[in-house]
Give the backbone structure.
Amino acid sequence: MDKLVINGGKSLFGSIEINGAKNAAVAILPAAIMASKNTCSIDNIPNIEDVHCLERILTSLGCKLKINKNSVEIDSTCIDNLNANTEDVRKMRASYYLIGALLGRFKKARVELPGGCPIGVRPIDQHIKGFEALGAQVEIKHGSVVISADRLIGTNIFFDVVSVGATINVMLAASLAEGVTTLENVAKEPHIVDVANFLNSMGASIKGAGTDIIRITGVKELKGCSYSVIPDQIEAGTYMIAAAACGGEVVLQNIIPKHLESISAKLIEMGAEIKEDGDSITIKSSGKLKGVNIKTQPYPGFPTDVQQPMSALLTVSSGRSIINESIWESRFKHVDELKKMGANIKVEGRTAIIDGVKNLSGAVVKATDLRAGAAMVIAGLIAEGATEVLSIEHIDRGYPNIEDKFKALGADIKRVSYSK
Ligand code: EPU
């Protein structure tokens, strides 16, 4: 078992590369199984546990994978198993994309219900509503989604809630449906556009991704292609916040500044300096920033996945900050951990009220989920003295080489193996 040991209080200086986007990669890998001809070569894949998990799942379906550090070649012409029922399927969220992908290509599948971070109730009713509208029969049996269709026929679907997962999943299935499918009230996150671009490179016909309405004209088959995943908006946002919190000057490379606008705007409001230059962004901060109010929202609003890292910064920002978490009902599990370090936070339902303190003090804390883990690392980097972050398997699910990247910026952080 590993933990991160951090001696806080160092300013951050230097330059690091941001990896490919986790939430795009974990949808693009399942989408690749829709190719009935040729192989998919996918580049800029982040080296994280969620990706490794999906690579094992794809292999269990019969795909042949050639895996390199940041790329993978997938031959899905030889799939011979439509029953995704391994431990890996159960433990991650994005395994639900296998439902849309297998349904689209084979018109049937059995996929165990997904796991993922414990951040609130995570229903998939909108995914199911979309599949049924396309003509599929869906049953939940013994913990699995059992789905089949004689034919998938394009139709109009208006989602009741804006959902990243449902938008992508139904887009996958509709790509191989007969006729035109119109999806309304869809999510607009950068990874929605990336998955649509990937499917179009495979021969799909998808228009409007990134707006409220997506129009998909079904095609008969999809084939392999070469593709590079977009940079990770959330990883970049996390490092921006760390730089703002610790003070110093940090350059992030391989990013798309437009995807970071809501985060940049908040950091500027707090007193940090941000400079965009092509595919890099520089964050300069004195480390003494002022508190702000935040409401998490679907893109282009402030991302829920950056709320937890941001709250670590707000614990030492002057005055009162109020966070309203509008996407997930239990995304404040990191608050009790931050309190162990001296933070002054009160949670009332979906609202956290943070009164800035002078500094945090190092403590033994745990990563209760992926982004909570990032928040605890940032808290440890700010704090006076030593912090140990436990349960870092959550962090490894989404942040490649987190300790190496912070070390390259001058932080005193190391990974230590220990037994319970
Ligand atoms: N929702 C429904 N019914 C559905 C689907 C969603 O009511 O059928 C609700 C959810 O309960 C939630 C809201 O809609 O309140 C948004 O959920 P969404 O479906 O957008 O979330 P998701 O697809 O399960 C993805 C990311 C999350 C990220 C959210 C929101 C992946 C694998 N996960 O989850 O990322 O928080 O979108 O942007 O893409 C993370 O990376 O740490 C993470 C949790």
